[in-house]
Automatic annotation (TrEMBL):
PANTHER family, A to Z: TAPASIN (PTHR23411)
Name of this chain's protein: Novel protein similar to tapasin (Tpsn)
BP-aspect Gene Ontology terms: antigen processing and presentation of endogenous peptide antigen via MHC class I
Keyword Metal-binding: no
Signal peptide coordinates: 1-24
Superkingdom of source: Eukaryota
Pfam (any one): V-set
The organism of origin for this protein: Danio rerio (Zebrafish)
Length: 442
């Protein structure tokens, strides 16, 4: 019982805290962007941009509350909106920076025209005639990007004609607008949606689509027709969505089983309701640092006066930007940059990763190389810095150290002593022999 009451107390505390802090809905400054009136449409339609402001609450605004709010004077009153957001989709800390902070979330609001979707997996949604009365309203689409790449959001809002009180009807968002991962790992691209349960569109079906886009190239990754409970045929393998999560929490995250270089790009998560759609983009970057090797391996002994050519091979990396360089670490532990060497162009492997190499001419007469040490190839990459080293040994030491000189003096002394000793021994035995010979001759 006491455990239960503790849980009860804690939940009350969490509840109050949440309404004080985490449930705080922002006052969002947005750019209201629309086509300039009087232009017939087309590709190069001039756009107008006005400052606008959204007051946001999870409950509807009463006239009383509205009179207490004072929008800044530089925003036209016709561009001030009182948004009801029942699920609190806007009420994330990422869209609600501390007062006075320099960084602000990005936000844009556009007029939205409901329309039947043309894509195959969403066309079933508008098979039956929809209540056109419900669509006769002012519709808006809001795109917002939270701070620190924590959130990207796209909401469709409906306001009774000529009112200033829109309500969020459809919300699509991702908590991972930017995803970076290593090669060969499973990847989760977050996307979730919410539909206002009080809207007539709720329960009349939805469709989900994930598209891939990179430098103008695009392809369908996954499409789910929720009305017919059917996935569309795609050429993509190893990409899936958890259907249970979809129906339970609106979690339509895309799961890639194993990341490959070709997966790098932008993924667009689109949710279709009858006549409505909202989408968010998630950027995926596959970042794999290079593997390095130094050739020849092991390095041959360096003969003084000779030039040795060494090569550093960096392979298996992506993206292609790489900074290759050489370092020498002497016997005294001090490092010295030897520059870039001559770097080759990139080669591309069948898995999409890159390789590149650098050749360095090691001139033993230069610098402190003459004493040998360690040669390192250093590769700076977005995925991290990698380093490979090889021992460099030199035949015959041209510039001896103090220790070496002392050892040489000691050896010299020893040799001198031995020669002295030997010569003394031999000369004394020589004289003995000669005495004998002398005697024989006599
Ligand atoms: C969405 O589903 C994926 C895959 O099942 C899961 O890993 C992820 O945690 C879910 N996200 C949320 C917010 O529940």
């Amino acid at each position: 019982m006491s455990g239960f009451s503790t849980i009860y107390k804690i939940s009350i505390i969490v509840f109050t805290l949440c309404f004080g802090v985490c449930g705080a809905c922002p006052v969002l400054e947005c750019w209201f962007v629309q086509e300039k009136p009087g232009h017939g449409g087309g590709l190069s339609t001039p756009m107008s941009q006005e400052k606008s402001l959204m007051f946001i609450r999870t409950e509807a605004f009463s006239e009383e509350i509205k009179t207490e709010l004072h929008p800044p004077a530089d925003i036209s009153s016709s561009r001030v909106y009182y948004v009801t957001d029942p699920a609190g989709t806007f009420c994330s800390a990422a869209l609600n920076p501390p007062k006075g902070s320099v960084n602000k979330p990005k936000c844009e609001i556009n007029p939205f025209m409901p329309h039947a979707s043309m894509v195959r997996w969403a066309s079933a949604l508008t098979d039956s005639a929809q209540s056109p009365v419900y669509l006769q309203a002012d519709w808006f689409s809001v795109a917002a990007q939270g701070l620190d790449e924590q959130l990207t959001l796209s909401n469709i809002m409906r306001a009774p004609l000529a009112s200033k009180d829109p309500k969020v009807i459809l919300s699509v968002s991702s908590k991972t607008p930017v995803v970076r991962c290593r090669l060969g790992e499973p990847v989760l691209l977050d996307c979730g949606f919410w539909v206002d349960p009080s809207s007539p569109l709720h329960g009349s079906g939805f469709s989900i689509e994930w598209r891939y886009q990179f430098r103008g190239e695009g392809r369908l990754v996954l499409a789910y027709d929720g009305k017919n409970d059917r996935f569309a045929e795609t050429s993509e393998s190893g990409a899936e969505m958890d259907i249970t999560g979809l129906y339970q929490t609106g979690n339509v995250s895309l799961i890639l089983e194993e990341s490959q270089v070709r997966h790098s790009g932008t993924y667009i998560c689109t949710v279709y309701l009858p006549h409505l759609l909202a989408q968010v983009a998630v950027d995926l970057e596959i970042v794999e640092p290079p593997s390095l090797s130094i050739l020849p391996s092991p390095l041959p002994l360096l003969v003084p006066g000779q030039v040795l050519s060494v090569q550093c091979e960096a392979s298996g990396f992506a993206p292609h930007t790489l900074d290759l360089g050489w370092e020498f670490t002497g016997a005294d532990g001090k490092s010295l940059s030897l520059g870039q060497g001559s770097v080759t162009g990139h080669r591309r492997a069948s898995d999409g990763t890159f390789s590149q190499s650098s050749r360095l001419e090691l001139d033993s007469t230069k610098l402190r190389l003459a004493r040998g040490g360690e040669i390192s190839c250093v590769a700076k990459h977005d995925g991290g810095t990698r380093r490979a080293s090889a021992a460099l040994n030199v035949i015959g030491v041209a510039a001896p150290s103090i220790e070496d000189s002392m050892a040489m003096v000691a050896v010299a002394l020893l040799l001198y002593g031995m020669i002295k000793f030997l010569s003394w021994t031999f000369s004394s035995s020589d004289s003995g022999d000669s005495e004998l010979n002398d005697k024989k001759e006599k």
